[in-house]
Amino acid sequence: MKKVIPIWLALSMVLFAQAQQPKSKAAGKTNSPALKEPYKAYLFVYFTGNSKSDEAIRFAISNDGYHFRALNSDKAVISSEKISSTGGVRDPHIIRGADGKTFYMVVTDMTSDLGWNSNRAMVLLKSNDLINWTSSVVNIQKRFPGNDSLLRVWAPQTIYDAKAGKYMVYFSMKHGNDPDKIYYAYANKDFTDLEAEPRQLFFHPQNKSCIDGDIMYAFGKFHLFFKTEGEGNGIKKAVSAKLTEGYVLEDKYLQQTTEAVEGAGTFKLNNVNEWILMYDVYMKGKYQFTKTSDLEHFKAIDQEVTMNFHPRHGTVMSITKEEAERLVKQWLPFDDAITNVSSKQIKSINVALDTAKKTLVLPVKPGTDLKHFNPGMVTYPGVTITAKPGNFSTGAVTYTVSIAGRGSLQYSVVAKEYHNPALEGFYADPDILYAEKTGKFYLYPTSDGFNNWSGTYFKCFSSSDLVNWKDEGIILDLNKDVSWANRNAWAPCIVEKKINGQYKYFYYFTAAQKVGVAVSDNPTGPFVDAGKPLIADKPEGVKGGQVIDPDVFTDPKTNKTYLYWGNGFMAGAELNDDMTSIKQETRTILQPGATFREGTHVFYRNGTYYFSWSENDTRDPDYRVRYGTADGPLGKINIPENNLLIAKDATQGIYATGHHTTIQVPGKDEWYIVYHRFNYPNGINMGRAAGFNREVCIDKLEFNSDGSIKQTKPTHEGIKPVVLKKN
């Protein structure tokens, strides 16, 4: 009787056989004709952080390997409590079995709250459908005698050894004072245990730690990517013709960033001879993707990758249409399907869904043609999204989302031109300048969106109307341009001065809790740092607070320029004519009252000097701005009874409106306030992280007839384009 092999199994066997064939390094192709891969999507498995609730397996899906969407609303898909000995798991790695239909996953059995040297175990998981998983804990110290000095077992991964006909599990271990080394062992037939004591697979020739190993077979070789610990840590690679021995170090770093990285993961893009090397930029709360065609040269593709979640150390596996449909049916909420839009005209981080009313608001960029606007709804296998005839210029459009096996839901979709946030992306602590030299406005913010305010560079944006902004790029990078500090690039300010008939731009900034100054001939740079901090210490007698948040102000009465700074205290001083040093005898501790926290800003109007500042903490939804008045740039500050300048508006979902600046339209008594707020709509639900995921907004600033300032109402709509007078 002739045995019939299922087509999926035959296809899988051919694919696997091809994976073992030698490849041409020049072309990156197999020597036999290429077989079209049966994969239509990608599954990303990851965890999200160091709290126990974050230390769990999560899934995300992608059609193209670049744009990923979290499944199950970014919640765990497997209970860590049920599968682990510690109550948490990290570093998930997933592969498809050699039979094409079985899936294997391994994870670190660990919670970070117990310490980095607390775990001795891993978890082995197995599934036939990606939905239901069996699991087993393997404690290396208990399972194999003689490991009394074992401190940790990290980041296991799996690969099929075709010669041995077994699944090899490899991982790093640290014993006593030795560095971390990468070991391997074969799993048993049921994938519930390791057959024998782990053997050493690779160690660094300079006796440095090696963790987070990831093996990719390509070009007839096994490529072992790993992270080196200690001095000069980063992603390196060792290569061997054999899976279990002979790895030779290629001693160069492969990550395309100067930031600390870990958790290298590689995957091949479907139906093309290109690979992705991705890694966790863990100090920044970022994930970087790089692309390569030879596994030797890597290009960062940050601008091509999107995610609606913040992964930590994870891996990606190609999946079929049927597998994607199964995952979608199990774990994709209707609300996540309708909010997945791809149009470049949409401010994607500000898309807002009223889950009760099923109303979706899409904020679009200035000038969007709403009559012919297409949101670019993204669908996955098993999902269809249809719209009733209509256009967004006349109101809401009804969309129907259908998920195979789950039915359908209708949504009312609205597209509105919102000018806030003024800048796309995460930025904070804005300062603004109208440059006489160019006749344009320039915005100088803190680059935000990095964990714990850990940004290291400053950018500039230009505009002719305060609504349409052009990204002028990085104008000062601490790692490249500043010798005395390499962290915490915060809260810049700038002033234009005409010196000997030439325009000069003096840029004051915070770095490492000190105030520096850089100089340029143009508002967009390049800026040259002075080589040392301008202000490094707190004023005499001041014990608390930080030397941060500079603000620069030129008195129109005298043309003298003053610098202000301080968190927990407000200090001010006159600058010398060189603009890069202060007149020490003019240092003054100002008294704005008990509400002062940080972010001093000074401006002048109709004979009055206005001092304004931020109250509360930037992580506080009630972060807001108050003001006072004075008779001079270093004079006594008088505080009005009603001195709130701008504050949250919970009815609009706008919170933490603070750290501001102001701008007067040249030749007009027309004023605007520029400030940051929590990201809308997600910030209020982010907890502490809302304080470093902020966005810059602009609204109208108005005065009463007596010179007092009307409280500004923050808006999503923002302002209309400003018309400048022609000279």
Chart the SSEs and their pairings.
Blueprint: H1 7-19, E1 23-24, E2 29-30, E3 41-47, E4 58-62, E5 67-70, H2 80-83, E6 89-96, E7 103-109, E8 121-127, E9 134-139, H3 140-143, E10 150-161, E11 166-175, E12 181-186, E13 199-202, E14 210-218, E15 221-228, E16 234-240, E17 248-250, E18 262-268, E19 275-281, E20 286-292, E21 299-300, E22 306-307, E23 312-319, H4 321-331, H5 334-338, E24 352-354, E25 359-364, E26 383-387, E27 397-403, E28 407-417, E29 427-435, E30 440-447, E31 457-463, E32 470-477, H6 478-481, E33 490-499, E34 502-511, E35 514-520, E36 528-529, E37 551-554, E38 561-565, E39 570-574, E40 588-590, E41 598-605, E42 608-615, E43 624-630, E44 644-646, E45 658-664, E46 671-678, E47 694-701
Parallel strand pairs: 5-22, 25-28
Antiparallel strand pairs: 1-2, 3-4, 3-23, 4-5, 6-7, 7-8, 8-9, 10-11, 11-12, 12-13, 14-15, 15-16, 16-17, 18-19, 19-20, 20-21, 24-25, 26-27, 27-28, 29-30, 30-31, 31-32, 33-34, 34-35, 35-36, 37-38, 38-39, 39-40, 41-42, 42-43, 43-44, 45-46, 46-47
